[in-house]
Design brief:
There is one protein chain. The chain has 862 residues and is of the alpha+beta class. The protein has 19 helices and 61 strands. The strands form 16 sheets. The protein has a four-stranded antiparallel beta sheet, with no helix packed on it. A four-stranded antiparallel beta sheet has the order 11-12-13-14, with no helix packed on it. Strands 18-19-20-21 form a four-stranded antiparallel beta sheet, with no helix packed on it. A hairpin with a 3-residue loop joins strand 18 and strand 19. The longest helix has 22 residues. The relative contact order is 0.03.
Length: 862
């Protein structure tokens, strides 16, 4: 017992000793005298005499708690104070009176009990083990130090778990100590380590498994983002749809659905799968419908809004200004650039604000925008930022990946924001299934598949390339050539050689020999040749002599011991064997030649036409692909003019023959040329024509190039235009300075400064016209802007007058496929400009009057 406590007892019990007698007094006195042996004997004697004895048990607790007592024992002290408290509750009134006489109350018992707990707490704190603190908590749950003991136990246990630092250890902690103040930290570390453990191999499948087994993880968003970026890396609509189905409650569902929506092949059609899976179906439906509309601006009460081609107000006039380009209509972008409350913002067609403080933006593709604010960033058309890096420039690769430029270097990212190649390269180009990356004048080649799997290792070992057969890449470095496949394996190693590929036939030319390559096996055949020649029809191999093979099924049988081979086209080749010189054809026919013969090959681009010209002096023999002689004759010159026409010169004059040898026009013209289906004939400074459609020959007696107008021909004689038919008979007299084809029955004609619309009988339909300007076509109808005394009007060659001649200006603010005509009239007396919008049928959509200063704000200067 402490010295202070001893003094207190002496003061308290000094009076009691003089007053009271009995066993408790003797126990007190013995204890005060520090006679612990006597004290214990008296206690035990008292307890033996009276088993319900709170006073003796109390003193026994005090004795056991005294550190000077030889058998000092906190737990024994605790045992007897608990017994004293129990006895106190069941003791009779006489015992309570005796206790009261010596000043021993319930408060004193409780005080002793707390002293025992304090000593036990000190013991646990000195030991400082989880077991010690658990023992204290089990024995002294009543203690006011219980919460502190619990905290110290929990803290010590958590420190031990921190050393182990595994998710299993943290899980064990919060399951064993669910009420610990360290549980939030334990759970946080548990989730972090669990996530790291499951995904330590960084495989997509591991992230998927993690979410399946731990759906409520706080790392769900992070895992979903990895899965989303990786499973949609090829940017296919089906990938986004599958993600939505797999993770229907993900925070990325809208993003996935928005990207899928803009991947639609036909912007006018919405994919029903995307529509059903989109989290905001009604909004998407409205936006989709509005995105198909061609818009134009509306101005009312000093504010701008937007109309569609039906005159319906899409967005009410509330914007201070709009992009100046919008004033001319034909607004097709899904974003609108406006100013609202002195801020330049981008809005959707539903009026939703997408971005603010916008200085400018570019449409890179229907799905991607490059937006300049303080800096320039990539945004998706649905409004989310694609990557956090600033972007100087961007373009779209053919699979929808984005080629972006950052700080003068190029990289690649997907529309989801996954960066496949960091911006570190001078140039990036997609060629077939390959990605060509250039840096410091060297090139590396990878593929879409490799990049999609995260393989961004690049080997800059080439200086040029060429795509072969859409699936192979021929690569070059200085004098070396090779061929790689889409697995980036070398089919032909990169060596000092030349690689030639002709269809399915490959061969290699080294400085010494030629070798063939088996394409399917990617194997170089172990045979060497001194030369190889090949085209689409023939293959010739040379060792000592040439071997000729046809590449056509059923073609010429292999031929050996040929002295020389010259391939002319895929149908014929020139062979020499001994003194024999022959043209050999695929159908095995031969045409014998002599050394003096000159050969020319005629091929017409874009057709199968191919002919051989065998010349002997001035005699030309023209042979077709099957060795047939189609015509011959003496010509100064012979050229192919079309796939079935030859132009020839004979004695300085030009004519035209068909490939069957028949004359189209005789050789009597100075010049013959062709445009579309007309042959223009120049003779003695006069012009005629031959119409290949119908065989009409207009003699060379006119002074300007002849134009076909439907079934007739516009010709010029003595400076005046007229119309003749296919047999050169006059249809419209030579009375006009200009003609414009209008329809089957009428023409616009100009005589001096005045235009008129006349029929083929030269009866006037319209007159006193100042100008006629052919404009746009709406369907099959040609429109023209007509000006007269009272202004401008709009005419069609089917409907005639669409808008009368009374407007100051007419422009199309719609699209070519869905025009909306804006026509303006100036009412000088009222100082008003009346702007009227008409649909393609000439029906009024909307008419709005403007003051002069207002009209200036909406004027389209196109």
């Amino acid at each position: 017992m402490s010295r202070k406590l001893m003094v207190s007892w002496m003061i308290i019990f000094g009076v009691i000793i003089t007053v009271y007698a009995g066993i408790l007094n003797r126990i007190q006195k013995a204890y005060i005298d520090r006679d612990f042996e006597k004290t214990e004997k008296l206690i035990l004697k008292s307890i033996q005499k009276d088993t319900i004895n709170p006073g003796a048990k109390y003193y026994y607790s005090v004795l056991f708690l005294d550190t000077a007592f030889q058998r000092y024992h906190i737990d024994s002290s605790s045992l007897f104070i608990e017994a004293a408290l129990n006895d106190f509750h069941i003791a009779d009134a006489k015992i309570h009176e005796d206790l009261q006489d010596i000043g021993l109350s319930m408060d004193e018992l409780i005080r002793q009990r707390n002293e025992v707990a304090k000593s036990a707490f000190f013991r646990a704190d000195t030991t400082n083990t989880v077991a010690a603190w658990d023992d204290f908590r089990d024995r002294y749950s009543y203690s006011e130090l219980m919460s502190q003991a619990t905290y110290l136990r929990d803290s010590l246990a958590y420190e031990l778990v921190l050393v182990i630092h595994t998710w299993e250890a943290y899980q064990g902690y919060f399951e064993q100590y669910p009420n610990s103040s360290f549980v939030p930290q334990a759970k946080e570390n548990y989730h972090i380590l669990l996530f790291k453990d499951y995904t330590k191999d960084d495989k997509t499948e591991s992230y998927i498994t993690f979410l399946k087994e731990h759906p409520k993880t706080p790392f769900r968003k992070q895992a979903e983002e990895v899965i989303f970026e990786r499973t949609t890396v090829l940017n296919l609509k089906k990938e986004y749809i599958q993600f939505i189905r797999d993770y229907p409650k993900s925070h990325l569902v809208k993003k996935a659905a928005d990207i899928a929506y803009y991947l639609g092949a036909d912007p006018a059609q919405i994919d029903q799968q995307v529509y059903r899976l989109h989290p905001k179906i009604d909004s998407l439906k409205d936006l989709h419908q509005l995105n198909q509309e061609v818009l134009f601006t509306l101005f009312s009460e000093a504010k701008f809004g937007f109309l569609n081609s039906s005159g319906e107000v899409i967005l009410d006039p509330k914007y201070q200004s709009v992009n100046a380009d919008y004033l001319c209509g034909d607004i097709t972008d899904s974003w609108l650039e406006v100013k609202l409350e002195d801020k330049n913002i981008l809005i959707s067609r539903t009026g939703d604000s997408l971005l603010s403080e916008v200085e400018d933006y570019q449409t890179i593709s229907p799905a991607v925008r490059l937006v300049r604010q303080d800096e320039q960033y990539l945004y998706h058309a649905s409004g989310f930022k694609i990557i956090d890096q600033t972007v100087d420039d961007a373009s779209i690769l053919k699979n929808g990946w984005i080629n972006f430029k950052h700080d003068y270097d190029w990289g690649i990212c997907t529309p989801t924001g996954k960066v496949l190649l960091d911006a570190r390269y001078d140039a990036i180009e997609m060629v077939g299934p390959y990605i060509v990356v250039e840096k410091d004048d060297q090139m590396a080649i990878t593929t879409v598949q490799h990049l999609s799997l995260g393989d961004a290792d690049l080997d800059f070992q080439f200086d040029d390339y060429e795509l072969i057969q859409d699936t192979l890449m021929q690569v070059f470095y200085e004098d070396q050539e090779g061929v790689i496949d889409t697995k980036l394996n070398f089919i032909v190693p990169l060596e000092e050689q030349e690689v030639y590929i002709s269809g399915s036939f490959w061969y290699i030319k080294t400085p010494d020999v030629y070798q063939m390559v088996k394409e399917e096996e990617a194997e170089i055949i172990d045979q060497e040749f001194s030369n190889i020649a090949v085209n689409d029809g023939w293959l010739a191999l040379k060792k000592e002599n040439w071997i000729l093979l046809s590449r056509y099924p059923g073609g010429v049988r292999p031929m050996n011991d040929i002295d020389s081979v010259k391939m002319l086209n895929e149908f014929a080749t020139l062979i020499k064997k001994g003194d024999t010189l022959d043209l050999l054809f695929q159908n095995r026919e031969r045409v014998p030649l002599v050394e003096s013969n000159e050969l020319s090959v005629f091929i017409w681009p874009g057709s199968d036409a191919s002919y051989l010209d065998v010349k002997d002096g001035f005699e030309h023999k023209v042979i077709d692909r099957d060795a047939n002689l189609i015509f011959w004759g003496d010509f100064d010159e012979l050229t192919l003019m079309a796939d079935s026409l030859f132009k020839y010169k004979y004695r300085g004059k030009t004519g035209v023959r068909r490939t069957d040898g028949s004359n189209v026009v005789a050789a009597e013209y100075d010049v013959v040329d062709k445009e579309n289906q007309l042959l223009f004939l120049l003779k003695d400074g006069r012009i005629g024509c031959y119409d290949l459609r119908n065989g009409a020959l207009i003699p060379a007696e006119y002074s300007a190039r002849i134009k076909r107008i439907r079934e007739n021909y516009e010709v010029v004689k003595n400076g005046k235009h007229g119309l003749v038919n296919a047999v050169n008979k006059k249809v419209v007299g030579f009375n006009y300075d200009e003609m414009i084809d209008w329809n089957d029955t009428s023409l616009w004609v100009r005589d001096g400064l005045d235009w008129s619309l006349i029929n083929l009988d030269e009866e006037v339909i319209e007159q006193e016209i100042h100008s006629v300007k052919l404009w746009i076509k709406v369907g099959d109808e040609q429109l023209a802007i007509i000006s007269g005394e009272d202004g401008y009007g709009l005419y069609g060659n089917v409907r005639g007058e669409i808008l009368p001649i009374e407007y100051n200006e007419i422009i199309n603010v719609g699209s070519l496929s869905n025009p909306v005509f804006m026509a303006e009239q100036h009412l000088k007396a009222a100082e008003l400009y009346v702007v009227t919008y008409f649909n393609a049928q000439g029906e009024t959509i909307k008419s709005i009057p403007y003051r002069s200063q207002e009209y200036d704000l909406i004027y389209c200067d196109q």
